[in-house]
Amino acid sequence: MSVAYSPERAEELAQNLAEVRTRMEETLRSKGGAAQEARLVAVSKYKPASDILAAYEKAGQRHFGENYVQELIEKSEQLPVDIQWHFIGTLQSNKCKSIAAIPNLYVVETIDSGKKASTLDKACAAVGRPHPLRIFLQVNTSGEESKGGMLPDEALQVAQHVISSCPQLQLAGLMTIGSPNPDLENGENPDFKTLNECRDKINIPDLELSMVSPVNLLVE
Fold first, then answer.
1. How confident is the model over 27-64, as pLDDT tens digits?
2. Both 126 and 188 in a single domain?
3. In angstroms, what CA-CA distances link 164 with 29, 158, 161, 170?
4. Which residues are recorded as modified (N6-(pyridoxal phosphate)lysine) (predicted)?
5. Taking the CA atoms of the chain, what radius of gyration do you get in angstroms?
6. Could you tell me the pTM of the whole model?
């Protein structure tokens, strides 16, 4: 099935992405960082494949986030193979083999237990992925029951399990869903601070941090 988009929609998406990138760069500069230190992942759940293709072709966007396995499978089959897909939804154990079979799956950001990591590891072996699949551990930094993820105190143990017992996985980062209205009284986002502390305990060089949050809070 061919995917087509209108020039007007493509222009709208390109402009929106340009505005977001500008905000990211401004926030990073204010913190003494560089644009290369942050990656923009465009969350594309419920959006048609045509929107993704427009953002890909007209705005140079390569990283997209999806929440549902079946939707991700369908889109990945229709769209360019060099799109880098991020799975950011709750991963059910019975969907691990399906998602592991997506060739250009860049990362699964929502591993919330050692058991889930082991299930995905076995799925990757079963489908014959040529390289270890990147994963992020999802950490519940806010303590809100409505948000998924392991407790911060569990992150080190799960990280050690992945490293020692999951050869088909590459521990690449930590992810959290930030509070919508964080307390910034001390100048630092508390969710990001907690996530950074988890990274320090795990002590893996270049371990990435990912936070689902408004842009200015995400790059703090």
1. 888 877 665 678 899 999 999 999 999 999 999 999 99
2. yes
3. 38, 10, 5, 11
4. 45
5. 18
6. 0.91
